[in-house]
Design a protein that fits this description.
Structural class: alpha+beta
Strand order of the largest sheet: 2-5-4-3-1-8-6-7
Largest sheet: 8 strands, mixed
Distance between the termini: 25 Å
């Protein structure tokens, strides 16, 4: 059975306050676990999100039994997600539990005071282990992201902001299934910290993300980028533009974040392509142990090495001519990035010239950019 996910809109009129209240509470539990895991076990790191009941609706939520039944009906091992939007931004929560019992009765420490302060009641509650930002202040990107979900109560049509956001929460499916909170990808991107903490530490990138989409990479390439890769790119480009006139500036953070963006996107692309290949190409020996490439999570050096393996190289070539660049050219590109990134991460100062060279090759300034070529492999 397909795993069912959910889409809902932040409470009208209080959208910013609502999201901030939940993020702040979840971050508080993350800090408590980080500072003293004996007093705050990892199982205590969560927050409740309530589907607020409209004061103008008198009848019960018609599809509430289907929502509650999803906790037992979704019998696969896939993650279950709650997508949260105010039409300008989009977040996703990792669902641990769904209930129609108000958790304020016996678990108030995990429920934002927001609900009680505004005398709000909810049809149901979602227990969220983590919350990840997918889009920041970009309605166009929200429209595109939600269109990948299928509304089960509307003939499995793509979710649309324009006329389709009724009877919240929507019950949706997604094919192919995606893992947004897996340990491998989280370790690669955040170093193991929860997504809610990673996003809090990298806020303020929305304007640069739109600039890169509209004026550098283009809509098609941007749409195929992993959300974390977008964040790394926007952070790197912001730092670069602010400091490119300063000859004494150390561009190590720029090089590290550009390389991280490529690492994240290359890992996603390789996992996607290998999943289409025979099972014999799914696993490869990396650093002395068998690794399932379809799970992602490889470092930039490991990716470069895996792509040189004969079975992987042949498997990607056999997918068709459009993947020749991935099979033959991506490994040298990643090796070059690794050779620049590693000294930047461990030995200190990086010059403007080095950062500029990396940045131009990735973004395609004066050349065909590696990121555009990489994302083209994910085109349908």
């Amino acid at each position: 059975m397909k795993t069912r996910h959910f889409v809902t809109v932040w409470n009208p009129g209080y959208s910013s306050t609502s999201m901030e209240a939940h993020l702040d509470m979840l971050l508080g539990w993350v800090r408590s676990f980080r500072d003293d895991s004996d007093k705050t076990p990892e199982d205590d790191v969560y927050v409740w999100w309530g589907k607020v009941r409209s004061a103008h609706r008198q009848r019960p939520l018609e599809h509430l039994p289907d929502i509650l039944g999803a906790t037992t009906a979704a019998d696969s091992e896939e993650e279950q997600h709650l997508y949260l939007t105010d039409y300008r931004s989009l977040y996703v929560g990792l669902v641990a539990e769904i209930t129609d019992q108000d958790p304020r009765a016996d678990d108030a420490a995990h429920v934002p005071a927001y609900y009680t302060d505004r005398a709000m009641n909810s049809d149901c509650w979602f227990k969220l282990w983590d919350i990840r930002r997918l889009v920041a202040d970009d309605t166009v990107a929200v429209v595109d992201a939600l269109a990948r979900l299928r509304n089960t109560r509307y003939s499995d049509q793509p979710v649309s902001l324009y006329g389709g956001m009724v009877d919240m929460p929507l019950i949706v499916t997604r094919e192919p299934a995606v893992e947004l909170f897996g340990d491998e990808s989280r370790d690669l991107v955040t170093g193991g910290t929860p997504w809610v903490q990673f996003d809090a530490e990298r806020s303020g990138t929305a304007a640069m993300e739109k600039e890169l989409r509209d004026n550098v990479l283009g809509d098609a390439a941007w749409r195929r980028l992993d959300p974390a890769a977008r964040t790394f790119l926007a952070t790197a480009e912001s730092i670069f533009r602010r400091n490119r006139e300063d000859p004494g500036f150390d561009f190590s953070p720029v090089v590290i974040d550009f390389a991280k963006a490529m690492e994240v996107q290359a890992s996603l692309t390789l996992a996607t392509l290998v999943s289409r290949a025979p099972v014999s190409a799914h696993r490869v020996l990396v650093d002395g142990k068998q690794v399932d490439l379809t799970k992602g999570g490889l470092s930039i050096g490991q990716l470069a090495w895996a792509l040189r393996e004969g079975v992987i190289h042949r498997a990607i070539k056999q997918l068709g001519p459009r993947y020749d660049w991935i099979a033959t050219s991506l490994s040298p590109v990643l090796s070059e990035l690794k050779d620049v990134r590693n000294p930047a991460a461990h030995q200190g100062r990086v010059s403007l010239e080095v950062a500029l060279n990396m940045r131009n090759k990735l973004l395609g300034v004066g050349c065909e950019g590696s990121l555009v070529r990489l994302t083209s492999a994910l085109a349908r």
